[in-house]
Each structure stands twice: as structure tokens, then as C-alpha cells.
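User: Predict the complex.
Assistant: Input components as received:
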Amino acid sequence: MKKKQTIPELIWQFFSSVKLAVYTLVLLAATSVIGTVILQDGTPQRYIQTYGEPFYNLIRVFNIDDMYHAWWFLGLIVILCINIVVCSIERLSSTWKIIFPKKIKFNSNRFRKLKNLQTFEVKKDAQYLSKEYEGFLSKSVGNVLKEQTETNMVLYAEKGRWTRIGIYVVHSSILLLLIGALIGSLFGFKANLQLGEGETSDTVFVVKKKTPIKLDFSIRCNDFDVKFYDTGAPEEFRSNLTIIEGGKDSFTQDIIVNQPLRYKGINIFQSSYGQTQPNGAIFEIIRQSDKSVTNHTLKIGQEIDLPDGEGTFKLEGFLPQFDFKENNLGAAFVGRITQKDNKSFQIGLPIRFPTFDRMRKGSFAFVVKEFEQGYYTGLQITKDPGIWYVYSGFILMIIGCWITFFMSHQSYFIEIENAGGNHSKVSISGTTNRNSQGMKLKLKKIVTQLKDK
Amino acid sequence: MNSSLALSSTTFIYALASIFYIGSFTFKKKALAKIGFFILVIGFLDNTAGIILRWIESYQMGYGHAPFANMYESLVFFSWTVAILYIFVELKYKESIIGAFVSPLVFLAIAYASFDPSISNKISPLIPALKSNWLIAHVITCFLGYAGFAVAFGFSIIYFVKPKDPNATSIFAKLPSWDLIDELTYQMIVFGFLFLTIGIITGAVWANSAWGKYWTWDPKETWSLITWIIYAIFMHLRMMRGWHGRNLAWVSIIGFLAVLFTYFGVNYLLSGLHSYG
Ligand code: HEM
């Protein structure tokens, strides 16, 4: 009768099964689809608009708006990890015994019965052949074991016992990767920083949450450049940055997309750019009665007197999008005219339409003549102390897969029988822990090589 | 000769190779498959020439980048990788009729690139994010992975046409033994898995060097991970649960559907960072 298992034993057994691994992987794959079809990180309004109120409650309960960080998704990953650890521990001791046997043994009868056994005759004496074949085996496979009976000579060699460790390398690389990801999410951050040309800052803002983080140094953007192809598509964005420490310029470096600046564990990436607000402009003021023109340079917030004591004009600001009667007229300056009689109204001066203000039919028309607009650079600032664990995991995974897939533990068996009259009968077979068809082909090749000896 | 001439002739040569292979399968004539193989190799050389010429032309136009930068180029390269992988398998295992299940894929990919009007074959400049040596490593490894899965998919189809009875005299009985088909499918998946692994990893390293994050759950990334997991499931079922035959062939087919979705579906149906396959 089977002994009744205790609860911990049952739990251990549950986590050591490959069936669990398959179920967990199926669930991970299936649920991962959700996040690619349902919008992630949207606002509540957008979810309610797209999916309706009842479904939005479901989204909230299961954190589907951020499902790759939801408790149940992380739970699946944790189950996977426990599964890998328990399963590996379960199997390691038997694998260890195969990899490091006390003594290498083989069973001739087993090899004689293998399906891939091939037999041929050679017109050579058995003694001679066994010397030749031993040389061949030890050169192409490894250390040769021999068994001699009165009529027979058996040669055995094997290689690649250690390759059985490959699969443990693969599975532990997954753990290492996930540990790295965990460290990164606990102690790292991903933040944004917008710097206009000439601006300096030491505080960045975490993506989405917008919490500020102060760096150990300041970053100044000296210059930003964008180049375009003839097609109008952007070719290159480049920011010239200076790192400032303790109030002193430390060093200056250019960054472009794909060539970030890395300093003290902080990575600074070129991610976007935009135009900054101009801080003033040169205006033409045209007296409508005689079309005489005067030029005025104005800063935003500045106020001037209009000619002929007609009142004042104040430059109030700059709008990237100026709407007039429901039409978007593009970027525009806005100003306020205060007349002699103290009546005051706002006017818009769209840059693309210099004659726009004439339609107002006032005694003066305003035209934006010139203004300077700078760029700001959009930087992405990240810190990820887990990255080296992740990268080690990557490397181990590739090495482990390579070992597991393309290398194997192979054993070769050659038997030479004296067939009398300087004739010998040769049988050859082999085993491998993977790719048995490859083994068949290999044996065929070896047969042709041995026949030539 | 220029690249577009080379690549359009490649399309027709691959079509011819497929016709011979399928003919050999239908008429039980191995000789036809041998001709098919010969034609396939010629198509492959033409395909190679087309890719190299396109590379050179992009330098002549002043853009200077490897020809892996849009849907058209990636499909052409996909045909190339499936072709070279299959040629290798046929040379190694000396089985030719199985080409009937692979050569149509080689043809279809490049035909789709050439004939779908929404796929432009213009050589265009690279956007800043794509200017990286990682682009080449990432694309080549991903496509070797896809190619392995495509060939495995072709072989999996055999499970649904070959009669179970080993003594059957029907036309399908000329196909290789079940053991060999099983092993070949598995080898292709293993090959695909290794390269998809490297492909995902190079993509992650690249993303980390361009944006500072190696993983962002972008739809394309997520779908490549889903594909990767499906093939991991395949291997575990085969190793541990003793799955074989049609059941396992279904997993391989589902896996390839995931590959196709990662490749095309994500581009057309979902949005993300990847501008092409
Ligand atoms: C993402 C997760 C996983 C990946 C990528 C993965 C990968 C692999 C690979 C590539 C193989 C070799 C398959 C072959 O030789 O055909 C393998 C085998 C195996 N895996 Fe996993 N695995 C994962 C999760 C797990 C888990 C959770 C378990 C826990 C039970 C597990 C248990 C095994 C076992 C027992 C083998 C067979 C090892 C042997 O041949 O001795 N795997 N795995």
C-alpha cells in the first residue's frame, strides 16, 4: 500500500510536476494576449467610453489597465519560478549521478540490440582493425574502453556527459532574468526631462506618475539639432549636454537616438524634441489711414503706447494653436489693445496669416514680422540596477540552449568479430540522449570511414 | 541587373520549384523533386543576389543601410532564410519529397512581397531609432527563428496527409518514416527556438540602448514572447508528457500562427514601436 503523503509532500509534488509548468505557460501565453488588445494605462474615461461601465469594473478589479503588473499575472510568474526551482532540485541529484559516475560502465548486450546497429565485413585481420578503430574512436570521440573475449573485441567510447547540465543552465537563466527584472522595478526608475536650449535641471519626472526625482548631478542642454531627409522624414536628433557636478561643468557630450549618455548608473537617452515658446517678437504696426509702418520689438508681458495716443498694446502670450471661429489657424501671438476710451479687447496674430489683423478694420493693423523660437530636447532618464542580472540571464540562456539543443551525450560501440581467413565482421551502434536520427546519419558516416581503414 | 529584376525573377523561379516539388509529391516521382531542388537552389542564389544588390543600391542612393528595414525587405529575407534552411535539411537528410510542404512557403512570402500593392518596394531612408548595428543582428536572428518555425510548420502538415498505416500504398507513402518526420519537426523547432531566443534578446538589448528599457510590453514584443512560450510548451510536451504525432503537430501549427500574427497581425491590427515585420 502507498504511504499516505503529508501536506508539505503534496505541495512539493504539486510544484515539481511538468504538468504544472505546461499549464502555467499556457496561462501566461493566453493572458498576455489581453494586454495587446485592451488599451493599457488609459484613463478611466477612455475605458468607460470604449468598453462601457460594467466592463470597466472588471478591468479595475483585475488591473487589466496595467495587466503585466497585475497581482494575478505576477502570481503566475511566481508559480513558474517555484516550479522551476522545485523541479530542478527534484531532478538534479539523478542528473548529477549521470554526469559524475563513480565508474563508467557499459552493457554490450544493450548495444547489440539497438535499432541503429550496422554490420559490415572487412577483409582485414581483427587485431589490426581493433588498433585502427581504437585510434579512430579516441580521436573523434574520447577515452576508449575495451572488452576482449576469445573471438570478439568490443570498443566503447563516449562524450558529452556534461551537456546534460545545459537544461539547468536554461532554467536558471530564467530565474536570473526575473530577479534582474525585480531589482530593476524595485530600485530603478524611468523618467522624462524636457530641457530647452540653455536650460539646466537636476530633477526628472517619473513616467506616468510624474513624481520628481533629484539626481546627483545637473544636466544642461547647450544645443539641440534636428536634421531631415529630403523626404521630410527626420534623419537625426542630436542634443549637446553638459553634466554639472558641485556647481562645476564636469564634461560635455552629444547624444543621439541609439547613443545615450551613461553616467553613474544613470542613462540619458534622446527620445523626443519640440519647440519652445518664443519669449517675444518683432511686430510691424501699420497705420491704416496712410499705410505708414513702425517696427516694435516686444517681449511677452510688455506693453507699449500706440502712435497718436490711440491707447496701448500689450503682448500677452504665444499660442501653439490659435482658434478663430472654429478654424485652427496655427501658432499665433495674442495681444490686448486698450483704447483711449478704456475699452479693451484681445487680438490674435497668426504667424501664417500676416494680413489677418487687417480684417479687424481697426485704425492700426499688427503683423508678426520676426521671432525666435528655440527647441527643447525630450530626454528619457533611466536607472536600472538589475540590468546586469538580466544580461547575465540572456547570455546564460543562449549558452544553455546551445548546449541543450546542439550537443548531446553520445556513446559509441564497435564490435569486431574474427570471421576467419583474415576476414572480420564489424558491428557498430550508438546511443544519444537526443536527436536519434542525427545519430543514425552519424553512424552511417562512421561506417564509410571505418571501411576505408 | 538590378535588385528588383533579381527579386522578381526569384519569385518566378521559386514558383517553378514549388510546382516541381508538388508534382513529385502528387505523381510519386522522386525525379521531379530532384529537379525542384535544383531550381530551388537557383532561386536561392538569385534571391541572394537580389538582397546584395539592394544593399549596394541603398548605398548608391546615399541611405546606406542593410536591406532589412521595411515589410518588403523583411519578406524577401524571410523567403531567403526558409530557402537556405530547407536546402540544408534536404542536403543533410537526403529526403526530397518533403520539399512539397516547404517550397510553397518560400514562394508565398516573396510573392506576397511582390504582389501586394500595399507593400512598397522602394528603398527608403532609416528613421533614427533604426540606425543601429543591433538592427542587423536582431532582424537576422528573428528571421532565422521564424524560418525554423516555418519549416517545422510545413513538416507538421505531413501529419495530416500521410496515412497512419505504414503499409499503405497510396501516393503519400513515399514520404519519410514517422520517426524521421518527428525528429525533423523537432529539430526545426529547436533551431527556431534558439534563434527566436537570440532575436528577442538582441531586440531587448537594442531597446535598452535606444530607449533605456529592455522590455516595455509593446505588442510586438509581447507577441514574440507568446510565440516563444508556445514553442517552450511544445518542447515540454514532447520531452515530458510524451506527446507525439498529430497532437504535437497541432501545437507546432498554433505556434506558427502565432509567428504569423507576430509578423503581420501586430503591424496591421495593433499599434506599437515596430514599424515593420
Ligand atoms: C519560460 C519557461 C521555460 C522555458 C523557456 C523552458 C525551456 C526548456 C527547454 C528549452 C527545455 C529543453 C527541451 C528539449 O530538450 O526539447 C526544457 C526542458 C525541461 N523543462 Fe523547461 N522551460 C521552462 C519552464 C519550465 C518549468 C516551469 C519547469 C518545471 C517543471 C520545467 C521543466 C523542464 C524539464 C523537467 C525539462 C526536461 C529536462 C531534461 O530533459 O532533463 N521547465 N525546458
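The first strand of chain A starts at residue 118 and ends at 122.
Let me know if you want any component modeled separately.
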